[in-house]
Amino acid sequence: MSEDKAARGSVRTITDLARLAGVSPGTVSRALAGKSLVNAKTREKIESLAREHGFRPNQMASGLRRQKTGVIGVVIPLGHDTRQQISDSFFMTLLGHLADELTREGYDLMLRRVVPEDDADWLDRFIGSGMIDGVIVIGQSDQFERIEDVADGYLPMVVWGNHTQGQRHCVVGTDNRLGGKLAAERLIAAGATRLAFLGDTGPMEFAARFAGARDVAERLGVPIMALPTHLSPDRASAEIARHISAIDGQVDGIFAATDTLAALCLTELRARGLVVPDGVKLVGFDDLPIARQTVPPLTTVRQDIAAGARGLVQLLLRRLGGDETESLVLPPQLVIRHSA
Amino acid sequence: MSEDKAARGSVRTITDLARLAGVSPGTVSRALAGKSLVNAKTREKIESLAREHGFRPNQMASGLRRQKTGVIGVVIPLGHDTRQQISDSFFMTLLGHLADELTREGYDLMLRRVVPEDDADWLDRFIGSGMIDGVIVIGQSDQFERIEDVADGYLPMVVWGNHTQGQRHCVVGTDNRLGGKLAAERLIAAGATRLAFLGDTGPMEFAARFAGARDVAERLGVPIMALPTHLSPDRASAEIARHISAIDGQVDGIFAATDTLAALCLTELRARGLVVPDGVKLVGFDDLPIARQTVPPLTTVRQDIAAGARGLVQLLLRRLGGDETESLVLPPQLVIRHSA
DNA sequence: GCGCTATTTGCAAACGTTTGCAAAATTCCT
DNA sequence: AGGAATTTTGCAAACGTTTGCAAATAGCGC
Fold it and tell me: For chain C, which bases have at least one atom within 7 A of a protein Cβ?
């Protein structure tokens, strides 16, 4: 084994290595950076010495000098239910794909969860830290205006969320309104005649899903009501239970804002002896893994999370290059299983 | 609004701010760092100027000078099924808690997924990058030896995983062997007489779970077999299906390495008309959210993920302070629901 | 061997912050 | 008021890289 502990400790800086190789630090830097202006033999010598001593250039110093860090910030603004979202399997899946994409492009990922209520300055602080070359915001939460403000003066930012006409920040996301339409259409096609939307209509994405469903309902003359529900699993169960007993018999088609909510809803419906889809039809949103494991498996509106992550990263890269990119709206897809 | 765009752009460095305040950069630095050696009035002036111009000190420069970054690396080594783990809801939940804990302690989190097979140097590279003050490794995968090697020369590292007698790296994790025992005992108490372990026994955690179950089975004279299964959901389903038809009638108690596998198994069992728990008993591991949503809800062995995250962070902090901390083994807890 | 150009190298100044040390200003005591 | 003790400041040298510029070396045709 060539890199024993002694060797590993001894040569920490590019200058150490330069001394060993009998050249100047500048040359070592150039050699390691793979620049063309260094003699093939010198380069080889330097590279082998570097390997031998397990040397790696200090990224902080490099970052400082070059004014770029090779790190992309990923920030998750948490809404009112503070602890909610990170356990949400949707966000997590997106994060996983983002990590993959960024790694593939040679970037590191710095993750931050923030509570905008406690820290109005969350976005500027992150951007201004000098630690990141660009930022991906996962979810607009209730921070639309703040994000718009920042977008005016800071190019390398891309946001996962909902697109609204004329907004100034670059966003990637599913066409939630269309998704809502698909869901409502399916419920009605499956025979539902009185609809309900289960979820929190505060966040823009959810509001758009509801709006899409309402469009369809109104067009077809079907009533639809909102059943406001928090997303944190502990609160949600109780709220859903209450909703279900309240609407008893007045609703035969439920559109849940999320598969997670749909799954909980399924459990509560079963507990009250309501049969899905015979008594009540149910449609979810996201097509998370859980959707195919419920009983019955969920009919849901699929978001292509992998494509979303790819889009976020590609757009961000172009913005890092100076482009003013447009937003990217992805098409949702209805996946019919057995709950509606 | 005090920080308009002009202001935001103009004062980027501590020197700019010093000029504005009519003091030297050193004083500004001290004021912003909250040191006691600066006059109350000067400090106030500097702070208000900083606020007004939205100034934030550059973390790279600060990190370079102080030789610490305020960033903790979190690295997830991926095993053979490359894409597997990040979507695994267990890892994700742990990551969420880690993010919270680290934030609370004032650290940022840098996330890296690595494929050790492609990059033997994954751990040294991360540590040597100079970007992180310490590292948390999530899962030993098949990299036990590599981690041991590094542990000898690098203090601020804590690993999530399995504890084995006499190992040299500091680990936090559940007592998997005990967990396996609990699972097997429950299966047998529920009436099972021929057991099977469903999962991959390659990773140490899973091997220990299997070993624990085998201990019990052998002691009680009950046969137990291993049903090797990959963890990636796509492959797992098919493999489980195959296992189930292969063992038809020869097994009446299944211990799944993970709730995720257990849930898939439940689906496959149902598809083959086997009733849980009447025909086959089933016990999972982790107590993920999904465990309470399956039909029937899963009996499982609970890992306290939040406590694990807390432990990882606390131990790491002590190591950053120079302590040689011991490992932390958490007790698993049997959660009895309806699948066994 | 001599000019000439083309490659390689070294030098030194950045990048923006922190901090030991010494100088200056202030306070306190008699 | 005078000096000592104390608080507050400024100076300048780091931290480890990168890079423009100029110097040195090598290559080449004659």
Answer: 7-12, 14-20
Q: Give the residue nearest to nucleotide D13 (CA to C1').
A: B65
Q: Mention every residue, 6+ apart, whose C-beta is less than 8 A from residue B256.
A: B198, B199, B262, B265, B282, B283, B284, B285
Task: Give the E-state strand segments of chain B in sequence order.
Answer: 71-77, 108-114, 134-138, 157-160, 171-174, 195-198, 224-227, 253-256, 281-286, 299-302, 328-330, 333-335
Exposed e or buried b for every residue in A71-108, given b needs 16+ CB within 10 A?
bbbbbbbbbeeeebbbbbbbbbbbbbbbbbbbbeeebb
Q: Which of B103, B113, B125 sits opposite A99 (nearest CB)?
A: B113
Domains of chain B plus CATH, in order, are: 5-57 (1.10.260.40), 71-174+305-330 (3.40.50.2300), 176-302 (3.40.50.2300)
Per-residue pLDDT of chain A (340 residues; tens, 9 = 90+): 434 444 455 789 999 999 999 999 999 999 999 887 889 899 999 999 999 999 999 999 999 999 999 999 999 988 765 545 544 678 888 998 999 999 999 999 999 989 898 888 999 999 999 999 999 999 988 899 999 999 999 999 999 999 999 999 999 999 999 999 999 999 999 999 999 999 988 888 899 999 999 999 999 999 999 999 988 777 888 999 999 999 988 999 999 999 999 999 999 999 899 999 999 999 999 998 889 889 899 999 999 999 999 999 999 999 999 999 999 999 999 999 999 9
Interface test with A, best of B62, B66, B94, B293 (most A CBs within 10 A): B293
Footprint of strand D on the protein (CB under 7 A): A 12-15, 25-26, 29-30, 32-33, 57-58, 61-62, 64-66; B 22-27, 30, 36-40, 42, 61, 64-65, 67, 130
Q: Please answer yes or no on whether B112 and A128 come within 8 Å at the CB atom.
A: no
